[in-house]
Amino acid sequence: MAEIVPGISGGTAALIVGVYETVIASADQLIRGVVRGAADLVRGRGAARAREHFARVSWGVLLPLGVGMVTAVVLGAAVLGPLVESHPVQTRAVMLGLMAVSLIVPIRLVGPRWRAGEVLLAVVAAVGAFLLTGLPAGTVTDPPMILVAASAAIAVCALVLPGTSGSFLLLVFGMYAPTLAAVNDRDIGYLAVFMLGAVCGLALFVSGLRWLLATYHRVTFAVATGLMAGSLRALWPWQDADRGLQAPGDDLGVVTLMFLIGAAAVAALLIAESALVRRKRASGAAVLD
User: Tell me, what's a Pfam family for it (predicted)?
Assistant: First the structure.
């Protein structure tokens, strides 16, 4: 659902529920297996090496996640899209609450003590995200298929990078409305080209991201924190048609309530996750005893 709303990051949602690094590692192995299998099939070497990669995929996480994502995109395009259109201020307020509290996740993954370099990187990333989310929306009425594939390849990178929104990038490129319409109209040709571009973009991006997570874990999440913080600009409730920020209006009380509802939802998830982790650790200690 997060990827349908411009300004909300699917990577952030994965961080909140604790599956982000598992998904990145599994996606990397899945892509490697497909590429290795295709290459070995052409060379007549069989599928043994591809199966080794597939065996490292956390299918118990990836398959339910995939089913949930496809279902949410189909339902969300029909429900959430009109909701954003009819109640933009209140919807952005809820999303702002969700995202603001979500900053706790990457901050905690960096560690309790931030180094000066990590703070600087986070600030630079925040400024970049703030400027990006202020770009005016583009408009494309009849996009060529090469543009559909290219925009999908770029947007899918934002799908797996916390703090960046794939749907927001589509909005900037002018491809958000055509893509949402294709989902609602079940335009198979458009969606097939879009998926092909997304798969190619993911294949090129996810291996590098996994390497960054393994090699520069703290730095990667420091940058993610900055991206998430800067992207909060896109969710400021009061905006004009060109995304210019405006002062709070007469509906400040309602908007504040919506913000608190969103914040409370994520806070409840984080509290539940912390309790679950403590319970698992306690169980492990009991077994050791």
Answer: VCA0040-like
- For 187-196, how does the pLDDT look when each residue is reduced to its tens digit (9 = 90+)? 899 999 998 8
What's the rounded Cα separation, in Å, for the pair 118 and 220?
9
Within 13 A of 54's CA, how many CA atoms are on the CB side?
Answer: 11
Q: Is 48 exposed, middle or buried (0-12, 13-18, 19+ CB in 10 A)?
A: exposed
Helices (H) and strands (E) counted in the chain, each on its own, are 13, 0
pTM: 0.70
Residue 175, helix vs strand vs coil: coil
Helices 20-43 and 48-55, interaxial angle, to 10°? Answer: 170
In a 10 Å sphere around its CB, with 0-12 CB exposed, 13-18 middle and 19+ buried, how is residue 139 labelled? Answer: exposed
Radius of gyration of the chain (CA): 20
Q: Does residue 289 sit in helix, strand or coil?
A: coil
Task: Report the interhelical angle of 176-185 vs 59-86 (nearest 10°).
Answer: 110
Q: How far is Cα 74 from Cα 96, in angstroms, rounded to an integer?
A: 23
